[in-house]
Every structure is written in C-alpha cells, then in structure tokens.
Amino acid sequence: MKVLVLNCGSSSLKYQLLDMTTETVLAKGLVERIGLEGSRIIIDLPGREKIKKEQPFANHEEAINAVLAELNREEYGILNSLEEITAIGHRIVHGGERFSGSVVINEEVLKAVEECVELAPLHNPPNILGIRACQKLLPNTPQVGVFDTAFHQTMPKHAYIYGVPYAWYENYGIRRYGFHGTSHKYVSRRTAEILGQPLADLKIITCHLGNGSSVTAVKNGVSVDTSMGFTPLEGLMMGTRAGSIDPTIVTFIQEKEGLTAAQVNELLNKKSGVLGISGYSDFRDIEDRAKAGDEKAKLALDMFCYQVAKYVGAYAAAMNGVDAIAFTAGVGENSSVVRKGVCQYLGYLGTTLDEEKNKVRGQEAIISTPDSKVTILVVPTNEELMIARETLALVPSK
Question: Which residue from 229, 184, 231 is spatially nearest to 210, judged by alpha carbons?
Fold first, then answer.
C-alpha cells in the first residue's frame, strides 16, 4: 500500500512516497521554481545521494508528471508501475468551516476548496492545480484532501469568534481558523504515545516553532484554541510575520507613510517578525548574532521566547491545567536556546528543564527532569505521515 503525498506551493511542489505497510519513506523531494527560470527537481532516495536535475517546468502538471516519471524509473526500484500508488494525499491549507476532517476529493469538494480561495489566496490555488493535474495524469487513483484548518474545527465558539460585529462572521466568515493543524494533530498523538497514556486523558500544548509558528491547546485529543487566526499572520511573531499587534497600527502607519492596504499587508507578512527586529529571518543566524553580542538579534530572540511562553500560559489557563508541552518544527526541534528561553518562564507550572537532555536536536526526547510536574518533550513533526495515514483511512487498499 503506497501513498503519494503532495504539497503544492505557488512555485514549488514537495512530494513524498510512503509504503504504508511499514510507514517508511520510499522517496521524497522537491520541485523548485515552477514557471520560473532555473527550475529543478530534487529526488531523495533512502541511503543514496540526492539527485538534482535542472529542467524547465512551465506549470504544476509538468512538475507532477516529472515526479511520477522519476518514481517510476526502473533503476530506482521504487515502483514497478504507477498503478502501485494506492492513493494521493494533498495538503490543502484552507477548508474554512466546510471541512472538519479529511475527505475523498470529488468535484463537490473541489468547488468548496475553490470557495475558500479568498481566505487563502496564496495557498489554495496551487493546491487546486495539483489536484487537477493528478486527475489528468492518474485518473483512476483516488485523491484525498487533508486540510491545515480541519483539526481546529473543534474549537468552541467562544474561542474562535472575534470581538467585532457578529455580522462579519455571518457575512464573510471572519473568525479564528488556525493552521498547522496536521502538525499539531500528529505531535499531540505522538506525545501521548511517548508518555504511554491515553490521548483522551491528556492536556497537551503543542508548540510548532519555525519560520511560521503557532501554539495549540489540545485537550482530550482535540484542539480547543490555537494562536493563528483568520490568517496565519495572527499569534506569535515569526520569521517575517508580525504576529498579533494593535490593529490601529495598520491605519496609523498607512497615514504616516502613505501606504496602501496591500503595502501594509506585505510589510506585516514579509518584512516584520524577527526579520523586522534583527535584520535576519533565519533563527540560526539570529542565535549566532545574539551570541556574538548583537543587541537586536538578542532582542528578537527574547521577544520570540517570551511570546511563546505567554501563549503556553494562556492555554494552560484555557484547559485548566497542562500535562505536557511538546516542541516541534524546525526551531522547536533543533534550538535548545529557544526551548530554554521559553521554559524559563514556566516555573509556576512546576516545570523543570533538564539542561543536558535539552541539548537534543531533531530527535524525540523527554527534556524535563523526572520530578517535573509537567512533561516537556521534543517531538519531530511528520505531516507527510499524518497525511498518508488520513489518506489511507479513506480509500480502499490495493
């Protein structure tokens, strides 16, 4: 049973082929710069050097066709035929209120995804292009949509409605949706497995920290609150995103600098966050600069850790307690500095970080001391595996 997982961006395509009998990766890779000069495909096969091929890709259909051709190469020994692919799982960023779980894709589903384009104009269109391409290239292979927003559809109304005129919600769907749902779902479930306790009995705070960051409160296995909102701009300051700010700043700076709404939106999404504070968007650079005495880099790092800790505190209150805090994603999995910076604020919860165990990078680990009242973990995320599992659960096996 082999599942192909696709994540289509505006000019990129990430892919992974998994053998779900053993949940192992057979191949993964990336197509970069689709529709642009210098496009290439990268093929990463277990135990072999990465293969990189520069070739033009005018659109997503050409990119997916190239991926399928590579996966089907006889010398790789991955597939004997494309017919061996049981199903295709697509990461879809926005499902609005329509989807509270993964679904088999048909024309009705596609129409609903298209209706969500105005909520995710940068992400849903390429997701749709990928689905349409697969319909043409593999017409008999079932496809499943796995939505970033679906996991958060369990939030209570008092958590997702904003304090604005209620008609905005009724007329335009303005509410908290939340994102990174597939990651938060995987990490919360894996945390319960590591602890050897039923997920339904646990209160877990998952911290997905990377260039894009979000924190989620998972109570008894379901999301009850999350830091990203109507868009992925809300919540924590991130690599280039401002996070939550006083909304009046937008109109104030528009008037002061004569900016359009689009220009302010660009500034808040692409030129703010830790980049706006320090001049660097990569947390590795920021850590290095802070260590070298760069005051703005240190400030950016301090601000980020402080904000994560504030959300952890808020969600401990929202769930009336917390059993485990799990760090994941690029920064959460690899930065002992950030994890320590966050945990320094959490003593009131009875947490105690083990400094030696906290040195781990990119591996599952419990990094709190045995007597810590709250277990602190590093849990590498695996969104592709989660998508493959959800896909396989909805289609008949071959």
Answer: 184
Give the dihedral sign, CA 121/127/130/134.
negative
User: Binding site for ATP: residue ranges?
Assistant: 14, 208-212, 282-284, 330-334
302 part of the active site: no
Class of CATH domain 197-383: alpha beta
Identify any residues that bridge with 365 across adjacent strands, giving them in sequence order: 378
Pure H helices in the chain: 60-71, 107-115, 124-137, 157-160, 166-172, 181-195, 248-257, 261-270, 273-278, 283-291, 295-318, 329-334, 336-343, 383-394
Q: Name the amino acid, one letter, at 147.
A: F
d(CA 165, CA 172): 11
Residue 208 has pLDDT above 80, yes or no: yes
Cα four-point dihedral sign 249, 250, 255, 257: positive
Range(s) of the chain covered by CATH 3.30.420.40? 2-147, 197-383
pLDDT at 298 over 70: yes
Residue 240: strand, helix, or coil: coil
Whether 191 contacts 377, CB under 8 Å: yes
Q: What is the pTM of this model?
A: 0.93
Sign of CA dihedral 385, 388, 393, 396: negative
Q: Which two tokens stand for residue 293?
A: 């005495």
Binding annotation? 7, 14, 91, 208-212, 282-284, 330-334, 383
Q: Could you please state the CATH topology (level 3) that the domain comprising 2-147 is classified under.
A: Nucleotidyltransferase; domain 5 (3.30.420)
Catalytic residue among 44, 148, 201, 323: 148
Give the CA count within 13 Å in the CB-facing half-sphere of 63: 31
Per-residue model confidence as pLDDT tens digits over 90-134? 999 899 899 999 999 999 999 999 998 888 887 888 899 999 999
Whether the CB-CB separation of 5 and 124 falls below 8 Å is answered with no
